[in-house]
Amino acid sequence: MARRTTLGLATSFASIVLAASCVHVGGTQERRLIDLNDGPPSIALPIAQEFATQQELDRLRARAKARFPGLAPADLEGLQLGWQEAVLGDGKHVMLEITFVPASDGVNAKAVADYVALEVRDAVLPRLKAAVASQLNSGARRRP
């Protein structure tokens, strides 16, 4: 099930770069954060909320199974999708969160998490860019 997390953090820009890349949470658990900072939070938040759904999670699980046929159904249940807001040193950020905790030993959790994160990034960033462009175009038409 998609979920929401709100974080309040005061940190430096270097921490953003770390958070937007790879976070290893121990064992065979992997987490990826896709920072939607290509647009303002007012645009990024609804896009993240609309994307992080059970339907999208099911699609991502199917794509992961196709790419990694050895994944068992229990492994796929360990793939989760959510979104979060974070207030960092340089302002508010909206991120999509991919977490993968496989049930089976021997699963390359890093490879699966990396693959799913790229799928999410490739699906969401064009939506975000289109929404930002649409807002800019509608703002330009309103000016006298």
Detailed description of the structure:
The chain contains five helices and five strands, in the order βαββαααββα. The chain has a five-stranded mixed sheet. A hairpin with a 2-residue loop joins strand 4 and strand 5. The longest helix is centred in the C-terminal third of the chain and has 34 residues. 27% of the residues are buried. The N terminus is likely disordered.
Average pLDDT figure: 83
Task: Enumerate the spans where pLDDT stays under 50 for 5 or more consecutive residues.
Answer: 1-26
Tell me the count of domains.
1
What's the number of helices? 5
* Termini gap: 46 Å
Order of SSEs = EHEEHHHEEH
List key phrases describing it.
single chain, 144 residues, alpha+beta, five-stranded mixed beta sheet, elongated, disordered N terminus
Secondary-structure blueprint of this entry?
Blueprint: E1 3-8, H1 13-19, E2 22-26, E3 29-35, H2 41-51, H3 54-67, H4 73-77, E4 79-88, E5 91-100, H5 109-142
Parallel strand pairs: 1-4
Antiparallel strand pairs: 2-3, 3-5, 4-5
Summary, kept brief:
By secondary structure, the protein is an alpha+beta fold. The chain has five helices and five strands.
